[in-house]
Write a structure and sequence with these properties.
The complex is a heterodimer of chains A (391) and B (261).
Chain A: E1 2-5, H1 15-19, E2 25-28, E3 31-34, H2 43-47, E4 53-56, E5 71-74, E6 77-78, E7 81-82, H3 84-100, E8 104-110, H4 117-121, E9 126-131, H5 139-153, E10 157-161, H6 164-177, E11 181-185, E12 187-191, E13 196-203, E14 208-214, E15 220-224, E16 241-244, E17 256-263, E18 276-280, H7 290-300, E19 303-306, H8 308-312, E20 333-337, H9 343-349, E21 354-359, H10 366-369, E22 372-375, H11 378-390
Parallel strand pairs in A: 5-8, 5-10, 8-9, 9-16, 10-15, 11-15, 18-19, 18-20, 20-21, 21-22
Antiparallel strand pairs in A: 1-4, 2-3, 6-7, 12-13, 13-14
Helix pairs in contact in A: 5-6, 7-11
Chain B: E1 2-6, E2 9-11, E3 17-19, E4 24-26, E5 32-34, H1 36-52, E6 55-61, H2 67-75, E7 80-84, H3 94-108, E8 113-117, H4 128-136, E9 140-150, E10 154-161, E11 164-171, E12 174-178, H5 190-198, E13 202-204, H6 206-209, E14 223-229, E15 238-239, H7 244-257
Parallel strand pairs in B: 1-6, 1-8, 6-7, 7-13, 8-12, 9-12
Antiparallel strand pairs in B: 2-5, 3-4, 9-10, 10-11
Classes of the chains: A alpha/beta (391), B alpha/beta (261).
């Protein structure tokens, strides 16, 4: 097993040299040479136009057994209310299930959860409902119970929201099941021939997307950020079955204890729910300059967003961060000021209905996804825009 | 109390540009650093040690050059450092990584708390922490923003979630992942830098860890990247031309036309 450069095919073009995240590749005598310390991340292999780099597997990959069928969506709820992300996942899950000609199920753990029929209206054929007073915000119990149910019913695909809860307990379930899990997907598709879930997400910390599969284990598991998929219109006439499953009380104990919860009141205008967002990036230069955006936001009733650099530099709190490591938003109007548009940022806002980009660099990637662009100095454009909008 | 901090060496920038002519990645002037979220984990470990005694051991899985990151950890307060390095570990996804780390931690045996950063800035998965806790079958708390109380058998922490913050208690040993709100990491001291230079970094390989070969590296990783691509954008923006006044007037007209404002 290892990585190999085929010197017949290699032209010494150097693409891999620039691509290696660890700067381990050199071109010596017009051939690529990979130094010690390679982590087999595979980016050079993917970038090579001449298929000169191969990563060899120790043995043939054995596809997973065919005994698993059906798609499961973890129906996340809080305070007995189903979260919106659940409906988004069911909407997409319905399409995936139709492609695979299999069943779509929602799995709901909680107590007295309302509007269970809605899960069917959004596409579920079956709802597995585990109702018990103990199942309230208990990650330990969710972990054990979801793992147990997956082992019992054997779905081939399990998807969940990449919320604080999902990101925290779904990896534990994957670990128990010893299966693969892809975090924060921005797209899910199906390879019908191999019955594989094609899981796409930004990768390698760079401006590149990767499609990931899980070939050897079942189920295939993925988390998806809220607002990545669109909710379908619910169909109240759709037929479905609600299956009540007894909670396996004896099987699990909670290792941690929740003592109290304080809701975040400071963050009352949630950017996730805003119709209009005005967002700033590195181009603002310093913390004080967010004031310009605040004035624009106030003029049009918008919430304030940010790309990652201003948050990293402490100009604005994390709760305003839009992107792969922040929030995913889908407002009607997104005004990006001094944001170049890294793939991580775009992952958090590119499904906005209308995007306006204001940036002094005409080559900035943000212009590739924007609806309207103004190439110019934001310190001139934004104040004038604010002034005109106020009139 | 013995505290273990898991850390990863990552490329020091996520600012990667695309060469518009060749459509390839361009990375410049990158040096490897400790994953920033792991620096908060290390700092918190050192603070607990300073309050309660014990020692802090930094653990990293990576290529030989990851030793640099462990030396940095010693310069900012870690007492010992262990590098898990073997060609067999290369190509690991989060499942294989958490298994390999767990083998090392089982070998260390005597620990009260494991601290990880909430996620790395290169992989961004936030999966290794929770997966590791599950392999070790110990309590797990994510997104910890404050340790309110800790003694030999128990701790009480605050964690940040989307809706607000929770106060949670657990018995020890346990594993927590921390967010950046938890502290401000210190800079290396002169004494620390001297110590880091001469410190012996233990290197454990596959044999030393007595791993199941089918559970490490590429062979232990169920996930595979099958394709990478530059995102296809729907189309270029309509760039609004003219002098500033015209641009603004034009933009406002368009937005009003679509009833956006």
């Amino acid at each position: 097993m290892g990585i190999r450069v085929d010197t017949e095919k290699c032209t010494g073009c150097g693409t891999c040299v620039a691509a290696c995240p660890f700067t381990l590749i050199e071109v010596i005598d017009e051939k690529a040479y990979i130094n010690e310390g390679c982590t087999l991340c595979g980016i050079c292999q993917q970038m090579c136009e001449y298929a000169a780099i191969t990563i060899e597997e120790a043995e043939e990959v054995v596809p997973a057994s065919d005994s698993h069928r059906g798609i499961w969506v973890f129906a996340e709820q809080r305070d007995s209310q189903i979260k919106s992300v659940t409906y988004e996942l069911l909407s997409r899950g319905r399409e995936l299930a139709d492609t695979l000609r299999t069943e779509l199920s929602a799995i709901c753990l909680g107590h007295n959860v309302g509007e269970i029929e809605e899960l069917i209206a959004y596409g579920a054929d079956k709802v597995y409902l585990v109702d018990d007073a103990a199942l309230d915000n208990q990650e330990d119990l969710y972990t054990a119970e979801l793992a147990r149910l997956i082992q019992e019913y054997k779905p081939e695909i399990v998807i969940a929201g990449a919320t604080s809860l999902g990101r925290s307990f779904i990896p534990r379930v994957a670990s128990i099941l010893k299966t693969g899990l892809t975090a924060d997907c921005t797209d899910l598709e199906i390879d019908t021939e191999k019955r594989l879930l094609l899981q796409t997400r930004p990768a390698f910390g760079g401006n590149i997307m990767a499609t990931i599969i899980c070939q050897t284990q079942r189920p295939q598991m993925a988390t998806v950020r809220p607002r990545v998929f669109k909710k379908n219109t619910p169909n109240g006439n759709k037929k479905g079955e609600i299956i009540k499953v007894d909670f396996n009380k004896e099987g699990v104990t909670s290792k941690t204890r929740l003592l109290s919860f304080v809701a975040d009141l400071a963050d009352r205008i949630k950017i996730e729910d805003a119709d209009i967002i005005v967002a700033g990036g590195r181009g603002l230069g310093k913390a004080e300059n967010f004031q310009l955006l605040k004035e624009l936001a106030a003029a049009i009733g918008a919430a304030l967003g940010s790309s990652r650099p201003p948050v990293d530099d402490g100009w604005i709190p994390y709760s305003h961060q839009v992107g792969q490591t922040g929030k995913t938003v889908r407002p009607r109007l997104y005004i990006a000021c001094g944001i170049s548009g890294s793939v991580q940022h775009l992952a958090g806002m590119q499904t906005s209905e209308t995007i306006v980009a204001i940036n002094n660099d005409p080559e900035a990637p943000i212009f590739e996804i924007a609806t309207y662009g103004i190439v110019g100095d934001l310190f001139k454009v934004v104040p004038m825009l604010t002034k005109e909008l106020k009139q | 109390m013995n505290i273990l901090v898991c850390l990863k060496q990552v490329p020091g920038t996520t600012r990667v540009n695309i060469d518009p002519q060749t459509n390839t990645l361009v990375r410049q002037g990158i040096e490897n650093i400790i994953n920033p979220f792991d620096s908060y984990a290390l700092e918190e470990g050192v603070r607990i040690k300073e309050r309660c005694g014990g020692k802090v051991t930094a653990i990293s899985m990576g290529p030989p050059q990851a030793e640099e990151a462990l030396r940095q950890a010693i310069s900012t307060g870690a007492d010992e450092a262990i590098l898990l390095s073997d060609r067999a570990f290369a190509g690991a996804d989060t499942l294989a990584t958490s298994y390999t780390l767990a083998r090392a931690i089982k070998k260390i045996e005597d620990y009260g708390l494991i601290i990880c950063g909430r996620q790395t800035i290169d992989g961004d998965t936030a999966q290794v922490g929770p997966e590791l806790a599950e392999v070790l079958e110990i309590p797990f708390i994510s997104y910890v923003s404050q340790i309110e109380e800790i003694d030999n058998g128990h701790m009480r922490v605050q964690r940040l979630i989307e809706e607000g913050h929770e106060v949670i208690e657990t018995s020890l040993p346990a594993l927590i992942t921390v967010v950046k709100e938890i502290n401000v990491p210190r800079l290396p001291s002169l004494r620390g830098l001297t110590r880091a230079k001469s410190a012996a970094i233990q290197v454990w390989d596959a044999r030393e860890l007595d791993v199941d070969q089918d559970r490490v590296g590429l062979s232990g990783s169920p996930t595979r990247v099958i394709k990478t691509f530059f995102p296809q954008r729907a189309g270029k923006a309509e760039i609004i031309q003219g002098n500033l006044e015209d641009q603004i007037a034009n933009l406002i007209e368009k937005l009003k036309g679509s009833k956006l404002i």
